[in-house]
UniProtKB/TrEMBL annotation:
Keywords: Membrane, Transmembrane, Transmembrane helix, Transport. It is found in: Membrane. Pfam families: MFS_1 (PF07690). This is MFS family arabinose efflux permease. The chain crosses the membrane at residues 27-46, 58-79, 85-104, 125-144, 150-169, 213-232, 252-272, 284-303, 309-332, 368-389. InterPro entries: AmpG_permease/AT-1, MFS, MFS_trans_sf. The keyword Membrane applies. Coiled coil: none annotated.
């Protein structure tokens, strides 16, 4: 889905004449539910009432059904809808998809041992990028050949069987495969519910009072902010300034994502489990700083068009590997306590907020700053993140992540 909504569609509308600001606004609108995710869905999952299907799996199945209904809505927009209408429908889809993501993350956090999180992160990352890469390549061709209706219909047909697969995976052996009725929960007095909500909010706030948690939260924002700030205008410039074909660009982006998210992620996942996510995170942040410095140097030397594939590779593959180390760190930092799902989603929302903010600012800044300056600024940002990682111990071992919080 991400390959269709965030890459193939963006390139398609860029080729049709959409400005960098319009493309950035589309990316921001579609990404907004992922920013609001902890407020919308974290408490829903953390405080879920019993269900015969399992407390998290119930929400997973429900949200996937709603997501498919939203995709069907794309077919009602006509043959040549405007980008604003497409963004609005995909915003609704993101609302449902972000709930499904919250439920899935909480199921992982509650069942995967700590020494297997690196490989689990690599597996989930590989699944994401394979789907994104395939979606980018396939739907870039479909958008060019048959327009949005053909691409939307194919997307609905391809994703429906995948959504139905959630019906076959139980949280616990005794869970029912399908049960529409919720389990019975004890009724709590209104004052008791208020007190429980206040205690929940206090526990959540306490998790972010420690220096390491605050640093990790800031890094989650900064990483995606810097990436969007450079990648969005660079991709638009390749199509509109340097004459790249939108389909060719989408296929290149898909191939690069596939390279980083499969072969690279698989090898790195095992390394993260062996050396710890903190050390791996520092090394990859430093590598990202270096790649953006090199990219800026190539652009400054006048090779922006000729070296476009190299630059895209530098700013796509290495950051994709960074997430394999970042996600286990975040999972370990938010594994304990009643607010664990919400805490994890706050970190994820910081990343999504960075992506939304970077996409929204990319257009205005593209008219003020050259791509060389932007690349240099992003390199400095990653270097600062490298220095901010506490030395000598993993971020995941921060004092605010155990069960002793009041």
């Amino acid at each position: 889905m991400a390959g269709f909504a965030l890459t193939a569609l963006a390139n398609h509308f860029a080729a049709a004449g959409a400005t960098t600001a319009e493309i950035g606004r589309h990316l921001a609108v579609v990404g907004l539910p992922w920013v609001l995710q902890p407020l919308l869905w974290g408490p829903v999952i953390d405080r879920a009432t019993p269900s015969r299907m399992g407390p998290r799996r119930y929400w997973l199945v429900l949200s996937l059904a709603c997501a498919q209904v939203c995709l069907a809505g794309l077919l009602l927009l006509g043959a040549a809808p405007g980008l604003t209408a497409v963004s609005a429908v995909l915003f609704l889809h993101s609302l449902a998809a972000s709930l499904a993501d919250t439920a899935t993350d909480r199921m992982i956090a509650g069942s995967v041992p700590a020494d297997e999180l690196g490989r689990t992160s690599a597996g989930t990352r590989a699944g994401f990028v394979i789907g994104s890469a395939a979606g980018t390549a396939v739907f870039a061709w479909l958008l060019g050949a048959g327009g949005l209706p053909a691409a939307s219909g194919a997307l609905l047909l391809l994703t429906t069987p995948l959504a139905l697969a959630a019906l076959l995976v139980r949280e616990e052996p005794g869970d029912r495969l399908l049960a529409l009725r919720r389990g019975s929960a004890a009724r709590v007095a209104a004052r008791g519910r208020v007190g429980e909500a206040v205690a929940f909010a206090r526990e959540l706030l306490a998790a972010f009072r420690h220096r390491d948690a605050a640093l990790l939260l800031a890094m989650c924002f900064a990483i995606d902010f810097g990436l969007a700030l450079f990648q969005v205008p660079f991709a638009v410039a390749l199509v509109q300034v340097h004459g790249w074909d939108a389909g060719d660009l989408s296929r290149l982006q898909a191939g690069l994502a596939l390279l980083g998210g499969t072969l690279g992620a698989a090898g790195l996942g095992a390394a993260v489990d062996r050396i710890g996510p903190g050390r791996a995170l520092r090394a990859l942040l430093a590598a990202c700083a270096l790649t953006f410095a090199v990219a800026g140097g190539l652009i400054a030397a006048g090779f922006e068009a000729a070296a476009g594939p190299v630059i895209l590779g530098l700013v796509s593959v290495v950051p994709a590997l960074l997430y394999v180390a970042l996600l286990p760190t975040v999972l370990l930092a938010s594994r304990a306590g009643r607010a664990s799902a919400t805490q994890f989603q706050v970190y994820m929302a910081a990343m999504n907020l960075g992506d939304v903010a970077g996409s929204a600012l990319a257009g205005p800044l593209a008219g003020l700053l050259s791509s060389v300056i932007v690349a240099a600024a992003v390199a400095i940002l990653f270097a600062a993140c490298t220095r901010a990682v506490p030395a000598g111990r993993d971020l995941a071992a921060s004092p605010g992540t155990d069960d002793t919080r009041a």
